[in-house]
Each structure stands twice: as C-alpha cells, then as structure tokens.
Amino acid sequence: MMGGLYYKPRSFLHTTTAITHVVIFQYKKNTSIAQKQTVSKAFLALSQNCLAPYDKPSFDSPGKPYIQSIIAGSNDSLEPPAKGYEHTYVVNFASPDHRDYYVGLDPNFADPAHSAFKELVGSLVEKVVVTDFTNGLWDDKGPEE
C-alpha cells in the first residue's frame, strides 16, 4: 500500500478509468492582470465549451459537455520555490479517450474549443507544466525509462 492507495499496475488502466489532468502556468513577465483574468475565465469556461463529438462511441452524450470538473486557483503555497508558476488548473475526465480528445495531439481527434483556448493562451505564457494521472495508479519506472 502506498499513500493509502493500493498499487495498481498499468494493465489496470481501461478506457473507462477516470483521468486527472493538471496544468500549471508561468506567465510571461509582460502579461497583465487583465490578461491573466481572461485566461482564467476562458480556462474555466472550457467545462461548458468542450462538447463531446458526435462520431466517437466512447462519448455517451454527443454535443454535451464532457469535462467532469475543473478546479483552479493561484499559487499560495508556503513551500518555496514556485519558480514563477502562478495558476493551477485541475481537470477531471471520465476516461483516457476524453482526455485525449481534449488534449488533441491527433489533429483529427481534437476538441476545437480547447484548440482555440491554446491559441489564446499561447502568447501569454512562458512555461506550462502538464501532468496526468489515474488515482491510485503507480508505475514502476527505473532510471533508464
């Protein structure tokens, strides 16, 4: 048992396993407060603007929002260093397929609302940290991996 969760091997991951997607922004020095607020509002709006495609069977409700939830806020950690990272967003998806559509690495399988958001934010951020995980899933990776 690790951190109160049982170790689950990678083979546990199924297409119906929930995925948590974490995004942390470090803005460019010249990004204004108003621009940061615009980014935050636009990111949170993705929960309603990202709609399930009609042609993918892994989505139960075509044309309806498919993001389960988004929570977000400014860094207020007392543990240094934040290294200039300011805003964190935590997005929950019902499955890896939903996350994959949202992320849009395959241009033929990409959410247009999220693609438009990436265009908006692209010129305002210096760095972005992204990590995804499945609750309770721990990979055994060695130094060579």
UniProtKB/TrEMBL annotation:
SMART domains: Dabb. It comes from the Eukaryota. Residues 19-133 form the Stress-response A/B barrel domain. This is Stress-response A/B barrel domain-containing protein. InterPro entries: Dabb, Dimeric_a/b-barrel. SUPFAM superfamilies: Dimeric alpha+beta barrel. The lineage of its organism: Eukaryota, Fungi, Dikarya, Basidiomycota, Agaricomycotina.
